[in-house]
Amino acid sequence: MTLDDWLARLERLHPQEMDLGLERLQQVFAHLGGRRPAPKVITVAGTNGKGSVVATLDAVLRAHGLKVGVTTSPHLHRFNERIVIAGREAGDGAIIEAFERIDEVRGSISLTYFEFAILAAFELMADADLDVAVLEVGLGGRLDAVNIIDADVTVISSVDLDHEAWLGSDRETIGREKAGILRQGRPLVIGETQPPRSVLDHARGLEVPVYRAGQDFHWQETDSGATFRGGPQQQVELVGLPASQLLPANLAAGLQAASLLLELVPARVHDALAGLSLPGRAQRRRALGCDWILDVAHNPHALAALVAQIGTERRWVAVFGTFRDKRADRMLELLESRVAALHLAPTPGSRGQSAAELAGRLAAVAPTLPRREHDDVAGALTAAHADACAGGFGVLVAGSFTLVAAADRWLEAGCRGAVAS
After folding, report:
1. What whole-number distance in Å separates Cα of residue 36 and Cα of residue 296?
2. Kind and range of the H or E element at 84?
3. What is 283-420's CATH number, 3.90.190.20, 3.40.50.20, 3.30.2380.10, 3.20.20.70?
4. d(Cα 22, Cα 112) in Å, to the nearest integer?
5. Alpha carbon distance 314, 94 (integer Å)
6. Would the CA dihedral through 130, 134, 136, 142 be positive or negative?
7. What are residue 324's phi and psi, to 5 degrees?
8. Can you give the pLDDT at residue 165?
């Protein structure tokens, strides 16, 4: 079977519905040999910012000469993006071999798509003789699949409302779930200045050293670049560092976590961060005669950060689509002042919705904002591009990973077509 065949099989046999709990996974992991993915493990949880923290850690640790493995989710274009070893995506053949081993030992034990992915990542990492593994939590923390591994350092990038049906409806409850990745006496990095009390209380109960943004570590923009001051006793001057598309809070959290494993060398940190980017995170492009921003802001907390980041220098035509369980009404309220027109796109899958369904949920929000519904993403992007060119606006694509991935592919195809003609 090809990798696509395997993924289709996993989606059919083990749908991606939430199946929280670690007992099944731990059994299969033991049958596989229970190998730790690396001698040192950093686990990253959070409502938003996880991917940026992971990218920072990967770049900085590798710049210091360490061999690093990373697992993230979801992927934007290819499943292979979920497993990266020493800066290279895992190949189809290696992933297939890992899937075959997992399938052979699991017997009658059911696994979800995500659990297969995590176990495959652990297998490939254990085979790679790594120095450090960086694991991104998929959902919550306490019952997430990566939590079968005891982390040496944990990071909680942010805590806000998302996935409330599974994690709770307030920050304290959600924070308690995310704090489930903590381990007795092992350090925690918190990427926000005002974390929920539940996180701090859980850390105190486990005698966990806490490094908190704005209190124990700091990032400061300067005329010549930036300065990172972290604990214990680390300061890094980053002269000439270009502006990053990643938020300073996430860069700082990643640097603080890295500094707990090694002494940061300013020149190596500079080199790691100078070219650091992450697809779909405030991703700016100039294409087809106008400016574009692509961002996987799929909840109000993420969209608020994006709106603050893009500033008020211009207005945008927005292409927007979310899954059914997201607070799309609150997201549109945040977007309203920045956009001149709204194009609604469908999202796929069991949690997805048509543009008409999304429009129904948004009917009472910003009723005077011009908007159109589209049957497919390409139609939404085509219409938004036309509006932007006519009005001198940019195009902002925000919402689900599937929407941003489709927009990125559409732009690539459009740019190739323009070059060819």
Report:
1. 31
2. strand 83-85
3. 3.90.190.20
4. 11
5. 46
6. positive
7. -65, -30
8. 59
Give the integer Cα–Cα distance in Å for 6 and 92. Answer: 10
Tokens, residue 355: 């543009």
Q: Which of 183, 232, 182, 237 is CA-nearest to residue 211?
A: 232
Q: Are 254 and 357 in contact (CB under 8 A)?
A: no
Q: For the chain, give me the number of helices (H) and strands (E)? A: 15, 17
Read off the pLDDT band of 16 (50, 70, 90). Answer: very low
CB 121 within 8 A of CB 166: no
What is the three-class DSSP state of 4?
Answer: helix
Distance of CA 275 to CAs 29, 80, 269, 376, Å?
A: 36, 22, 11, 34
Tally the C-alpha atoms within 13 A of residue 6's C-alpha that lie toward its C-beta. 21
169-199 pLDDT per residue, tens: 688 999 999 999 999 999 999 999 999 999 9
d(CA 219, CA 138) in angstroms, rounded, equals 27
From residue 125, give the alpha-carbon distance in Å to each of 121, 133, 364: 6, 7, 49
d(CA 142, CA 179): 7
Closest C-alpha among 341, 332, 334 to residue 304: 334
At which residue do the structure tokens 């709770």 appear?
A: 168
Model confidence at 275: pLDDT above 80: yes
What end-to-end distance do the CA atoms of the chain give, in Å? Answer: 38
* Residue 325 vs residues 11, 301, 305: alpha-carbon distances, Å: 20, 15, 20
Please report which helix (H) or strand (E) contains residue 53, including its range: helix 50-63
| pLDDT tens sequence across 364-413 | 999 999 999 999 999 999 999 999 999 999 999 999 999 999 999 999 98
- With residue 24 as reference, give the H or E element that holds it: helix 23-31
Domain ranges of the chain: 3-274, 283-420
Give the residue carrying structure tokens 């927005």. Answer: 318
Same fold, 3-274 and 283-420: no
State the CATH class of domain 3-274. Answer: alpha beta
Pairing of strands 290-295, 283-287: antiparallel
| Report field, pTM of the whole predicted structure over 0.85 | yes
Cβ-defined contacts of 86-92 (< 8 Å, 24+): 86/62, 86/128, 86/130, 87/58, 87/62, 90/124, 92/2, 92/3
User: Tell me, what amino acid is at 199?
Assistant: V
